[in-house]
Each structure stands twice: as structure tokens, then as C-alpha cells.
Amino acid sequence: MGHRRPCDRPAVHDLLGGRIRDKVAVYATGLYYTRRIPGSPAGRSAQLRRRRLQGMKTKVGGLPIDEDVRRVAALREAIGRTFI
Fold first, then answer.
1. What is the pTM assigned to this prediction?
2. Rounded distance, CA 62 to CA 64, Å?
3. 30, 35, 67, 83: most buried by Cβ count inside 10 Å?
4. What contacts 44, CB < 8 A, 6 or more positions away?
5. Tens digit of pLDDT at every position of the chain (84 positions)
6. Distance between CA 47 and CA 78 in Å, rounded?
7. Cβ–Cβ < 8 Å for 41, 71
8. Closest by Cα among 76, 80, 82 to 31
9. Residue 57, C-beta contacts closer than 8 angstroms, at least 6 positions apart
């Protein structure tokens, strides 16, 4: 097998047949329903976009459906269509 870890056991990617890429896209998790984090979810998502992350995920279902739809629409408008 290829790469060995300090514990002298094979790395998981070696057990699964080897590496298939050298880079992994990074995304953010957050934008929870909380009042403790200042700023709007749309503003915070735009900050994540400026950090050159590939995407983000957010929580839905904690508000009435019409409010969640408005919240997600505002997020999409803030981050654009190419940010996943």
C-alpha cells in the first residue's frame, strides 16, 4: 500500500483504492437560527464567498415555510448562482 500513517496503518484512501484527487473543495457549515451572531445571514454568506470557499450549507425548517423561502432567496441573491 501507499502512504503510511504514524500508527503504521494504511490511510483510508489507500484502503479504498488510492487517491483520486490532490485537492478537496471546502465549504462552510453554519448560518444557524440564532440571535447571538450579529449581521444578516445574507451578509454572512457573502463574507464566506469572499473567503474563496466553494460553497456553504445552512439550516432550514426552523421558521415558517414562507420565512424560510425568503431567507434562502436572500442568501442565493447575496452569493450568486455559482456558489454551491
1. 0.56
2. 7
3. 83
4. 30, 31, 37
5. 555 556 778 888 889 999 888 888 878 877 776 655 556 777 777 777 788 778 888 888 888 899 888 888 888 887 878 777
6. 10
7. yes
8. 76
9. 27, 28, 29
